[in-house]
Amino acid sequence: MTRFPQGFLWGASTSAHQTEGGNVTSDWWYLEHKPDTFCQEPSGDAVDSYHRWGEDMDLMAEAGLTDYRFSIEWARIEPIEGAFSLAALHHYRRMIEGALRRGLRPMITLHHFSNPLWFSARGSWNAPGAVDRFTRYVRNVLGILHGVGHVCTINEPNMVAAFRAIAERGPEALNDGIPEPDPDCAEALIEAHHQARRILNEACPDLQVGWSVAVQDFQVETDAEQEAAEYVRRRQTVFLEAARGDDWIGVQTYTRARLGAEAGQVVRRSPDASAERTLTGWEYYPAALGGAVRQAASAVGTVPVIVTENGVATGDDTRRIRYTHAALTALLEAMDDGIDVRGYFHWSLLDNYEWGSWEPTFGLVAVDRTTFVRSPKASLAWLGSVARSGRLPQAVDAATGAGEGS
After folding, report:
1. Which of 9, 24, 57, 300 has a CA that sits 20 to 30 A from residue 247's CA?
2. Tens of pLDDT along 188-216?
3. Left, alpha or beta for 177 (phi > 0: left; psi -120 to 50: alpha)?
């Protein structure tokens, strides 16, 4: 395959809490300001996308992207339990209409990590009635979704189910990949997704509904396959299998995970000492995207795949272009092998708040955190050119990041 198919979704992703600013009724705002927080710094005004979303969408449309994945913030829509803000609903409706006017197809994420503070105070997803509270919220946003083609119910449920371990141990909990998800939380999230999908499909039959899973490219040593199977299943496969019957499955990947076994226990192999790293400390391994979509497809059967997040934390934009070129090359190879992939969303549109720190920069657009001035990077124009042509350049010039050939 030398070209991406007609109708392929070409976009970038953001989340509300990471970009909007002032999300004061959310549990993440509370967590960021606790005296014993693991967050290095709070989100504050973030990059003020609550007011500047039009500028963000203009940059995407002008570059040639056709799709925008953004989330609506439950904590703004239902800041107090049972009290729904019409102003917040109208705000997100204006964003949807703004995207459509610019020729951008909106993909709406209903839950991207942050909860209303009252929901977490009740026990979050582990509390009795959590699923009903979420589906009540889903019913209240139905009225703003007309014109939307795709809805993601919950972002990275396997990460959400591991939040308790992350909150207790801080960022070091992620040193060995996704921690063990809490099984009760996982069960509630899967049930919430299934109920939300039913509500959305019944109310909007043309809506394409799925959810996005953090999918690592698990590479297992031959003598560790038996031990690794359950390890991978608990952290990834059960959440992928929950998408059977969905309209699509979202794959979000950034690197690989190498697994071995010692004394009958799974061990995660560290990258070689010479391995290139990113600002997050992860191994620079763009080919992980091909492996991740293959693993997802093997778990979901005939459900189409959409890459809802993929990118690299780096301050060097030519490195970002090289990473994205290599990742898309691996994606095309998977598509050549018959994997049904319908779209690619880069993470992230903007340099934004990365859940406790501003240091990892994933964006196609830089943002001055004092003036909020947006400065598009060369990577935005590069990805836009790929979207316009539907064709990946044969190579990337090492010095400039520009494409060579077609």
Report:
1. 57
2. 999 999 999 999 999 999 999 999 999 99
3. left
Angle between helices 130-141 and 183-203 (to 10 degrees): 30
Taken in order of first residue, the domains within the chain and their CATH numbers are 9-404 (3.20.20.80)
**Residue corresponding to tokens 């778990």:** 299
E strand intervals along 28-82: 67-71
Cα gap 230→367, rounded to integer Å: 42
How far is residue 124's CA from residue 135's CA, in Å, rounded to a whole number?
14
Let me know: does 305 contact 251? Beta carbons within 8 Å. Answer: yes
Task: Using DSSP, state whether 383 is helix, strand or coil.
Answer: helix
- For 137-193, the DSSP string reads HHHHHGGG-TT--EEEEEE-HHHHTTHHHHHHHGGGGGTTSSPPPPHHHHHHHHHHH
pTM for the model stands at 0.97
Type of residue found at 46: A
For residue range 146-185, list pLDDT tens digits in order.
Answer: 999 999 999 999 999 999 887 777 666 666 678 889 999 9
What DSSP character marks residue 304? P
DSSP classification of residue 130:
H
What are residue 108's DSSP bridge partners?
70, 151
Calpha distance 360→109 (Å, rounded): 22
Known catalytic residue at 20: no
What is the residue type of 302? T
Task: In whole angstroms, give the CA distance from residue 50 to residue 172.
Answer: 31
Q: Which residues pair with 26 in a beta bridge?
A: 116
As a dihedral over the C-alpha atoms of residue 233, residue 236, residue 241, residue 246, rounded to 10 degrees, the angle is 180
One of 20, 32, 156, 283 is an active-site residue; which one?
156
Cα gap 96→57, rounded to integer Å = 11
